Amino acid sequence: MKLSVGLKVANTLSLTPQLQQAIKLLQLSSLELEQEVQIQLDSNPLLEKVDDDFSSVEKEEQIDQSTQDEFKNDNLPDDLPVDTNWDEIYTNQSTALATPEYEEREDNRSSSVSLSDHLLWQINLLHLSEVEQIIAYCIVDSLDESGYLDCEIEEILFAAQHLLEQADIQEEVELDEVMVVLKYIQRLDPVGVATRNLVECLSIQLESYDQNLTLKENTKKLLEHASLLLTNDVNRLMKQTQLSLEQLKQAMALLKSFDPAPGAKYQEKEQEYQTPDVILQKKNERWQVFLNPDVLPKLRINPYYAGMIKRADQSADNQYLKNQMLEAKNFIKSIDERHKTLLKVATCIVEHQRNFFEIGAEGMKPLVLRDVADEVELHESTVSRVTTNKYILTPRGLFELKYFFSSHVGTSSGGECSSTAIRAMIKKLIAVENPKKPLSDNAIAKLLQEEGIDVARRTVAKYRESLNIPASSDRKVLI
C-alpha cells in the first residue's frame, strides 16, 4: 500500500453556533422565548432590555455622558486604535413595535371555593356531635369531582372508626349513624351531593321541589322506571307509569331542569391562557397581519460596556467584552430573523385562508406545509417550527397557526375541499336536523355529495366522531 498526500474538495453542511441558535429560537413559544431572553440578560452584560419608563434616547445620552466623563478621568490618549466598526453596534435596536394597538386589561380572576370547603362550612353550622362530625368529614373526603360518593358506606364506616381510635375516642360507630349523617349532607347546598348514582341524585333534588305536587308525583313515577327512561322507551314508560304523553313530557322537562352533577360547578378548572404571537385585523377592507408588540422582547446593546471596547487593548477583560458583544448582536439578529419569518409565514397563511376569516370554517381551503414553504421560499421543517405553539388572534378567535393546515377531499368538479370545512358542514347539517329523525352518516354523505363533495360514509363517521357528536341512534329524541 502506497501512502500519498492529496487535496479533496467536497460540499458539507455544518451548523454554526449562530444557525443553531436561530433554529432554537424559531421553534420556541412566546413564553419559552421570554425565558430564553431572561437567561441571556442574566448571563450577558452587553445585552440589556429597553426600559419603558423613559425614552431610550434620553437613557443613551445619560450613559454616553457618563462614559465620556469616565474616559476623561482615566486620562486616556486622544487617538486609540479601534478594530470595531461602530456602525455595526445596535445601540438602539428595538425588536418591538412602537406602541401596542389594543388596551391592556387587568387580571380580574378570583379563586373559587372548592366543594369540600363549601360543604365543611355548612357542616360546622350543624349541631352535630363529635362522632357525627368525623363521619361527615369522611363522607366529604370521599366525594369525586361531580359530587358523587366515590366509595362504599362500609369504607366510610371503617375510616371513621379508625379516626376515632386515633383521637382516643372509645365509641363504636354503627352503619345507621353513617346513613343519618349522609342524608344530612345530601340535603345541603348543592342539593343532591354525596349521592351514589344519578337516580338517587335526581330523587333528592325532586324531594326539595314543592311547586307542583302533581308534577312531583308523576316525576317520581318516572324515576321508578329509570331503566326505561335511559333507553328512551316512551311506549313502555307510558304503560308502566300510567301517564299520558303530555304528562310524560312535563315530567321529563322537570328532570332536565335538575343538576346531574351538583359538585361540578365547584370544581376549580385550570384555565390555560395563550398569548397571541400575531394579530390579524381588517382595516379599509384589507386584512393586515402584524406581530403582537407585548410579546416581542425589546433588546439592545448596552452602550456603556460597548464604549469600553473602544480602548481596543488586548487585555482579558476587553476580549471578554468583545465576545459578549458578538454574542449579544447574534442573539438580537436571531430574534429579528425569527420575527420576520413568523410574520412572513403568518401573512402567507392569511392570504390562503382569506375565505375562512370572511365566512367561517366552511371557507377553509386545503393547505399543507409544502404550499407555504414553496411560496415563502423556506424549507418545510422551518415552516413546521414557526407554526408550532404560535397563535394568531383574529376576529373569529384565537387559533394556532397549525390549525389552518388540513387535508383535502376531492369534489365532483375536480377541485378540493378542506377536511375542516367538511367538519363544519357536518356540524351545521346535524344542528338543523329533525331530532325525531336524525340524519344517519349515509344520509349526511348523500347531502354532501349533492354539494359536490365526494365523501364516503366511513369518512363522515370519522369526522363526526372527531367532533364528539354521537351517532344518529343516540341523538334520536322521541318526545
Automatic annotation (TrEMBL):
Annotated GO CC locations: DNA-directed RNA polymerase complex
PROSITE patterns named in the record: SIGMA54_1, SIGMA54_2, SIGMA54_3
Molecular function GO terms recorded: DNA binding; DNA-binding transcription activator activity; nucleotidyltransferase activity; sigma factor activity
Keywords: DNA-binding, DNA-directed RNA polymerase, Nucleotidyltransferase, Sigma factor, Transcription, Transcription regulation, Transferase
Function: Sigma factors are initiation factors that promote the attachment of RNA polymerase to specific initiation sites and are then released.
Protein name per UniProt: RNA polymerase sigma-54 factor
Record-annotated RNA polymerase sigma factor 54 core-binding domain positions: 107-305
Residues annotated as domain RNA polymerase sigma factor 54 DNA-binding: 319-476
GO biological process: DNA-templated transcription initiation
The species this protein was found in: Acinetobacter populi
Pfam families documented for this protein: Sigma54_AID (PF00309), Sigma54_CBD (PF04963), Sigma54_DBD (PF04552)
Entry-linked InterPro entries: RNA_pol_sigma_54, RNA_pol_sigma_54_core-bd, RNA_pol_sigma_54_DNA-bd, RpoN_core-bd_sf
Protein family according to the UniProt entry: Belongs to the sigma-54 factor family.
PANTHER family: RNA POLYMERASE SIGMA-54 FACTOR
